[in-house]
Structure formats: structure tokens, C-alpha cells
Design a protein that fits this description.
- This is M48 family peptidase.
- InterPro entries: UTP_pyrophosphatase-like (IPR053136), YgjP-like_metallopeptidase (IPR002725).
- This protein is α+β, with helices and mostly antiparallel strands and 174 residues long.
- The protein has six helices and three strands.
- The protein has one domain.
- The radius of gyration is 17 Å and the shape is elongated.
- A three-stranded mixed beta sheet has the order 1-3-2.
- A hairpin with a 2-residue loop joins strand 2 and strand 3.
- Helix 4 crosses helix 5 and helix 4 crosses helix 6.
- The termini are far apart.
- Bound molecules: zinc ion.
- The site of zinc ion has 3 residues, from loops.
- Zinc ion (ZN) binds next to loops.
Length: 174
Amino acid sequence: MHSDLPYLRAYPQALQDQVRGLLGEGGSGLAVLLLRKYPQAHGVRTDKALYHYTTELKNRYLRNADAINKVLFDNKIHVVRNALGLHTSVSRVQGGKLAAKHEIRVAAMFKQAPDEFLRMIVVHELAHLREREHNKAFYQLCVHMEPAYHQYELDLRLYLTHIERAGERLWAAA
Ligand SMILES: [Zn+2]
């Protein structure tokens, strides 16, 4: 079925109605709400800084998982529906052993975003080191790394909804 709120399809109807109400108010209702809640953008400016940001979270919560080889902001990721970031792992034979190379890509539009949104995306991609599927164990791991994971995901989806409707980004580079 076609939805007028594609980023929020998985949420209860009552919440979607509330969002429609906010969008009705001259289109700025969502922007006002988001900027009030998240006034500041994060300061992660480069791929190198993003790599450190990601490894720090990984070392804190997933110390025994495979190392991450590469992390970058990717301007080729088009945020359509569910792809906010990507995790790829390529298995290669190295010295007679099978070694996986892990790469995490974050959609470039989140270079200008609150820290909470970046954290949610990175936590999501890190959880894929352990769980391939979006199952219960996967989300438990996400919440373990970021207790407000689900709230941040909803707010991030509200932001995507805002962009789709109003077209304007809300956070300039810090
Ligand atoms: Zn995923």
C-alpha cells in the first residue's frame, strides 16, 4: 500500500496521525520540534574522525567482535526507505585463514546531524558485526549500546520525513 509517510510505516497509526498534524502546520512543525530537542550538530567532520568515533564505541561494547577495517561517510548512499548506513563484510583468505574485512559506511547527509542520530546509525551498523538479521537479538544489542536507540531512530525518521516534505536540512556543519 502506498504510504504518505514512507519512513514511518512501521509505527502506530496514532503516531503517524500526530506527525500529519505537525506537517500540516505550515510544514515547519517537525523542524521546530527537532531543533528544540537537538539544537546542536556533532563535530565528526572527517572519515578519520568517524573511524575513531566508531572504534571507540566498538571497543566499549563489542571488544571481541572482528576489527573494523574502514569507516566512511558515503555520498553515494541514497537514503531511500531504510538505508541510513551500510555494513559490508568481505571474506578473504589471508595466510591460509579466512579473514573478514568489515567496512561501515554512513550516508553523507549525516555529517550534518545531531550526535544522537550519528550514534544511532553507527550502533546499528556495529550490531551487524554480531547479528546479520534485524531480529530481536539485534535490537537488544543496539539498545545495550545506546539505551535511547529506538527514540533516536524515530526522531531520525522524523527528520527524513521533514526533508522529504520541506527539502531543507536542519543542521549546518558545526
Ligand atoms: Zn541493518
